[in-house]
Amino acid sequence: MSKTEQVYLSKSKYCNGITCPKTQWMAIHMPEEFDRSVLNEAILEQGSEVGDLAMGLFGDYVEVPFGNLSEMIKITQDLMEKRTPVIAEASFSYDGCFCSADILVRKAGNAVELYEVKSSTAVKEINFHDAAYQYWVLTKCGWNVKKVFLVHLNTQYERNGELDLKQLFTAEDVTKTAKKFAPDIEENIRHIREVASAKEEPYMPIGEYCFSPYDCGYYPWCSRNLPKPNVFDLGGMQLRKKVEYYDAGVVSFEDLLKQPKLGEAYRMQVEHVLHPGNDHIDREGIAAFLKEFQYPLYFLDFESFQPAIPVYDHTHPYQQIVFQYSLHIRKKPGGKLIHKEYLAMPGEDPRRSVAEHLCKDIPADGSVVVYNQTFEKTRLREMANLFPDLADGLLAIADHIVDLIVPFRKRMYYSAPMMGSYSIKKVLPALYPDDPELDYHSLDGVHNGAEASAAFTLMQDMDAEELQKNRENLLKYCGLDTLAMVKLFDRLEEAAKTE
Ligand code: SF4
Questions:
Q1: Which of 181, 217, 307, 323 is 20 to 30 A removed from 204 (C-alpha atoms)?
Q2: Which 3 state secondary structure label does DSSP give 61?
Q3: Which domain holds residue 244?
């Protein structure tokens, strides 16, 4: 057996190899270069929860326990011989190509139906390759694969009482596509193995596949020889456009600056990096924007979590559920700051208590200052729909919103460290680089929205001491988000006044 043939494949390795065969060379020869920060552990956790739940889609089933691959294959053979009607993680191997089918439904004779479960709400292109690979392996093993389905969550499903698995999941019949892709699989496998077993590091240019359908963990290694910063560091530009520039040899910021068609916002970003100097400040624009604010000012920020599987009634998969807010209040110009906050306890649906506290804390006067209004406005309207008795108060808050992101998004205020982004996590340190009070990195446990969401989810299973610590972390994090807005507002006021 040649070295090329020895490269063992699984469905995920095959899919990664289809996207970029170099991933498999890296996994064998330089696994230590993989940047794990691309993996979102919370999302992976949700994925396995969804997979476990989907196993029950066809009633009783037998699960092949995860472990040694030969044992998994042997257990599957035994279950197939016994004509077990539904098997979860049924495992097969052909010519060094292994797969575990999420759900296998036995039909007459040697016919089977294959169900591949995804925790997403729609099918992605790469999922077809996954389904086709499994179809191919099972067919090669002698099974008559009648149907292949991709199962994903149904966003239209709204929970009402017990979970209804038939409604929660949508099974899309992808048999035709799997059959269409199947004839190419042998050649794809040969190519992946050839690249994976190369003696020297194979050359692959940077391409869309480094970022889509997923960020590749080997990007720091593969991009090590690119100038820093480069076209892929440009904020706000579509990936397709960046790759077009890269393919045309326009890689460094110096190269970009020579491009006559480079958009104004990108040009500003590149100029500020190459020729560092003063921040760009449009005083008149900022002054006009500040006229929209009416005191008292309510600086408001929500934290939410998005369970893949709806945990409360009247929610659907991946619904944003607000569990916390922070509120800094300034009653008059230069007035002292008042801080209010609310963080629900885990267990019960937090939306009612959040809505009640909001109505109490924010009367219908002044301006409600948020950063990126779509999120807060949408959540307020959702809660107003859900609780008609609180609708007036919640809609009044939504109607008084002023969006602090505007002067940064419109580049009225631009500073080089923003690197084209107007996210508050980039804007704040750009405007207050050395202020430890405003440093998200100095926080304990929770440093961003994703971590806040994960922290709240984990609180369900914490003991009292852990729970208390976690609550403190969440409160500090969300409190910093609204303090950040106050500081940005102050800086805008200073900028508007400066001669
Ligand atoms: S970073 Fe890009 S080129 Fe490198 S292994 Fe990943 S997908 Fe392939």
A1: 181
A2: coil
A3: 226-277
